[in-house]
Design brief:
The chain has about 350 residues and is an alpha+beta fold. The chain is built from 3 helices and 21 strands. Strands 6-7-8-10-14-13-12-11 form an 8-stranded mixed beta sheet, with no helix packed on it. A 5-stranded mixed beta sheet has the order 2-3-4-5-9, with no helix packed on it. α1 runs antiparallel to α3. The N terminus and C terminus are likely disordered.
Length: about 350
């Protein structure tokens, strides 16, 4: 039944996308646009996204469960896969997230638990980002993870780019939590992650390159947080593109924009420029208080959970779009409650 509830929420989002369809012109002025389309037919459930540190314009991604021990490097200029890395000796259960640490290592989160939080432990896999792109097989360091307070379902794993500390955001229809791992993970003992903050339903997250911002996203919303003293302080909601099943988010290497990904065959990755308080501190200093940068235009619409902070002309479209989404999700939530009462 928990699997059904998760699928129901995803179906509600897909239904909303089908009902609303493209909304011409929304947020075109702020530069939000499709950056690239993942064309690899093997990537049908892109569930995480992370910008490469070594290869300009390359983003790492992976499928959800049932794919195997694979991580893919996608060139944002073409949307084509330029490398598939196989993690040797790994039989993943439900890979949901990917992130890069300050040492350039790639962290892969085998942290999903669609049974409602029943696995006694989950895993994180770590390996050095390949210096050369191409198909390869790598050895990994495997970390065993448990949560303080018991098992959790989770889809977001973030490595802080300065301290190297790993964080996981749990996913629950009633709200989740942000969990901090030990200052240094150990492959020899179980790593206990402790709750440090309350967060809503989260499908992915990302730290800014300078470590001063954290962004968490759900299917059709995102929130920016200021990061200071190993703790988050909420800034506010971000405008996100309308996607079939919004699953991933990553900062661009310069910290000036976010990349939003979705599951599905030939899924589009959107680029959304940041401005104001949402800009990481280093990017804000570089722009000297400007409204932010980013390429304008794009081939389609963007819709968000809230109106644009600058009162852009897309406000009405966003409100209407979100109202429809909210109505569908409310209906799905009501159905879930009925089903729970029947069990």
């Amino acid at each position: 039944m928990p699997r059904f509830r998760t699928a129901l929420a995803a179906s509600a989002t897909a239904a909303a996308f089908a009902v609303l369809g493209p909304v011409p012109g929304a947020f075109a002025a702020d530069g939000t646009a499709v950056a690239f389309t993942i064309s690899d037919p093997r990537i049908t459930e892109s569930s995480g996204l992370a910008a490469s540190r070594l290869h300009k314009g390359v983003y790492w991604t992976h499928n959800d469960s049932d794919d195997g021990p694979y991580v893919y490097a996608v060139d944002s200029a073409t949307g084509k896969t330029v490398a598939r890395v196989t993690m040797r000796g790994i039989d993943p259960r439900d890979v949901e997230a990917i992130s890069l640490g300050p040492d350039g290592d790639i962290y892969v989160g085998d942290i999903g638990d669609n049974l409602g939080g029943t696995w006694p432990h989950v895993w994180i896999y770590r390996f050095a980002e390949p210096e050369r792109l191409g198909n390869s097989t790598v050895d990994v360091v495997r970390y065993t993870v448990q949560y303080e307070g018991g098992p959790r379902n989770a889809e977001a794993l973030m490595v802080h780019p300065k301290t190297g500390r790993v964080y996981i955001a749990s996913k629950s229809e009633d709200g989740g939590g942000l969990y901090a791992g030990p200052k240094k993970l150990s492959s020899k003992v179980v790593n206990v992650f402790r709750r440090i903050a309350e967060v809503p339903w989260v499908t992915d997250g990302s730290f800014s390159p300078d470590g001063t911002r954290l962004v968490l996203r759900g299917y059709f919303w995102a929130t920016a947080w200021r990061w200071s003293g190993d703790a988050p302080t909420k800034i506010g909601s971000l405008d996100v593109p309308m996607q079939r099943q919004g699953e991933s988010v990553a900062f661009t290497p310069d910290g000036r924009a976010l990349m939003y990904g979705s599951e599905g065959k030939n899924s589009e990755v959107w680029k959304a420029p940041l401005k104001g308080e949402d800009l990481p501190d280093s990017a804000a200093r570089e722009t000297a208080g400007s409204a932010g940068t980013g390429e304008s235009g794009g081939k389609g619409p963007a819709a968000g959970a809230d109106a644009a902070k600058d009162g852009s002309s897309g406000h009405g479209t966003v409100v209407v779009g979100f109202a429809v989404l909210a109505a569908i999700v409310v209906g799905a939530t009501g159905l879930r409650r009925v089903l729970r009462r029947r069990r």
